[in-house]
Amino acid sequence: MNKYELAVVVTTKIDDEARAAVIERVKDVITRFGGTVTNVDDWGKRRLAYEIQKMKEGFYYFITFESNSDCPNEVEQRIRIMENVIRYLCIRQDA
């Protein structure tokens, strides 16, 4: 099992319940493909480094999880089509 960190930036145009639902869907995708979510770190609303889709702010979430090497690819494929996710990045943490 490898350790991964997934950074997700969610749009500010949705309410708190919808934003929580997006993060729950991401966690469900991770567990569906054999991963185990160890921590979800909510950084709150932050200013983006550059404008994305005419937005200057986003809600940042950092999700750490453990899984085999196939899981991050499947997770990225599912996150890519989520309309409320502005940006994402999944990296493997060194042990």
Automatic annotation (TrEMBL):
One Gene Ontology CC term in the entry: ribosome
InterPro entries per record: Ribosomal_bS6, Ribosomal_bS6_sf, Ribosomal_S6_plastid/chlpt, Transl_elong_EF1B/ribsomal_bS6
UniProt xrefs under Pfam families: Ribosomal_S6
GO terms under biological process: translation
Keyword vocabulary terms for this entry: Ribonucleoprotein, Ribosomal protein, RNA-binding, rRNA-binding
Gene3D superfamilies named in the record: 3.30.70.60
Keyword rRNA-binding on entry: yes
GO molecular function, one term: small ribosomal subunit rRNA binding
Family: Belongs to the bacterial ribosomal protein bS6 family.
Functional summary from the UniProt entry: Binds together with bS18 to 16S ribosomal RNA.
Name the record gives this protein: Small ribosomal subunit protein bS6
Gene name of the record: rpsF
